[in-house]
Specification:
The complex is a heterodimer of chains A (about 200) and B (about 180). With about 200 residues, chain A is mainly α. In chain A, about 75% of the residues lie in helices and about 0% in strands. About 15% of the residues of chain A have low confidence. Chain B has about 180 residues and is an all-alpha fold. The chains are: A mainly alpha (about 200), B mainly alpha (about 180).
């Protein structure tokens, strides 16, 4: 087809008014251009025939009921989440209110800069260490010190090391899990960012 | 009996008339489905997107402010969902997380029963999948939905100049592919 680009420009409305006028005048007189133009139009209209194909009618009859069922299921799911979430919130609030005085004490303890941690471990028996661990105090401290365990752990004492490393590993495990298995919960926005990155780096 | 306009239907639905929503869905569900189907190229995913769009309509119709036409708003939702789906699919394919077995299931399930029609649709699906999605989007809206450039610009937030260029390239590729198949 000799005039294909020109015809496509005309069909895409990419021509200026004067170009359009010239093209239309040629279309009326140039038989070769006319036949190429008609052929292209015919091809494109054959694509449109697919729009007239009637699908299985039951599909569209059932589409809305299926969607409404989903809406219903989602709102039930949401309300099922709301009750435990509300109860959980109330419980947390009660615990917080009941422990208000002791929290004051703890908050002064959590000022890590003032604590000689090595001395604290040395003076605590394993039961006390366990309770410190369970209160996340040790883990907080581990992260506070950016993992410099050796400064306050007696590495020769396996029990202490076990308590600390297990807690830390547990935290690292959850962080790693979230970091390396994100695709099960990836959002449209996150997919968009990854997509743009891959496109920018010409990988996709 | 006079037919309700989109405006009246939305007002009735927001006032609690469920049948008004059924009428909106009945009016637009085919358009939503076929737009998604042509964008994505298979029935199963198009079905998923159509349902999602209907759910969004049901839940968000109260935010529709009538500053645009209802169909423009619906196309916008459908197109965005379809494009997001395509992006996710590409990323998954890149990370080898796309399930190859699904393709087999997808090719076996369709809402077109007639073999000849099914072949035509599959041929079109294949052609459309070979052109970049932005060009595909404009091509579908112009060729099948018969929207003009200013309507497409409203849906896609793009300039008409860019849309015209996209449509030109899409036309060129589609006609070339059709010629090669002959």
């Amino acid at each position: 087809m000799k005039n294909k680009n020109e015809i496509l420009k005309y069909l895409s409305d990419l021509m200026s008014e004067s170009e359009k006028e010239i093209f239309e005048r040629r279309l009326a007189t140039d038989t070769e251009l006319r036949s190429e133009f008609d052929l292209l139009k015919l091809k494109l209209s054959s694509l449109k025939e697919t729009a007239e194909i009637e699908p299985d009618s039951s599909y569209f009859n059932n589409l809305l009921p299926r969607s409404l069922e989903k809406i219903d299921a989602r709102s039930k799911k949401r309300s099922n989440y709301l009750i435990p979430a509300f109860s959980f919130g109330i419980t947390i609030l009660l615990i917080f209110l009941l422990n208000l005085p002791s929290l004051d004490e703890k908050s002064s303890q959590n000022n890590f800069g003032d604590i000689d941690f090595a001395q604290l471990i040395e003076e605590s028996d394993s039961e006390e260490l366990l309770s410190l661990f369970e209160s996340n105090f040790i883990n907080d401290y581990v992260f506070y010190r950016s993992g410099s365990y050796t400064e306050f752990i007696d590495l020769e004492n396996e029990d202490e090391f076990y308590l600390l490393s297990e807690g830390s590993l547990e935290n690292f495990y959850y962080e790693a899990e979230a970091e390396y298995n994100p695709f099960s919960t990836i959002t449209d926005e996150e997919a968009e960012i990854i997509y743009e990155e891959l496109i920018n780096k010409k990988i996709l | 009996m006079p037919v309700d306009t989109d405006f009246e239907l939305v007002k009735k639905f927001l006032a609690g008339d469920q049948t008004a929503f059924n009428k909106i869905a009945a009016k637009y569900q085919k358009k939503i489905y076929w737009h998604a189907r042509r964008m994505i190229g298979n029935h199963i995913d198009a079905d998923e997107i159509t349902q999602e769009v209907l759910i969004v309509l049901y839940n968000k119709l109260d935010t529709f402010n009538f500053q645009s036409k209802l169909f423009t708003w619906i196309y916008k939702i459908t197109s965005t969902r379809s494009l997001n789906y395509i992006k996710r699919k590409k990323v998954k394919r890149f990370l080898f997380l796309d399930d190859e077995n699904v393709k087999e299931i997808q090719s076996n399930s369709d809402i077109i029963q007639n073999l000849e029609s099914k072949e035509k649709i599959e041929k079109l699906d294949k052609i459309l999948q070979k052109i970049p999605e932005k060009q595909r989007e404009v091509f579908i809206m112009r060729q099948f939905n018969e929207l003009n450039y200013s309507e497409i610009a409203e849906i896609t937030n793009k300039s008409t100049g860019a849309l015209k260029a996209n449509y030109f390239h899409a036309l060129k590729k589609v006609t070339e592919m059709m010629e090669n198949e002959e």
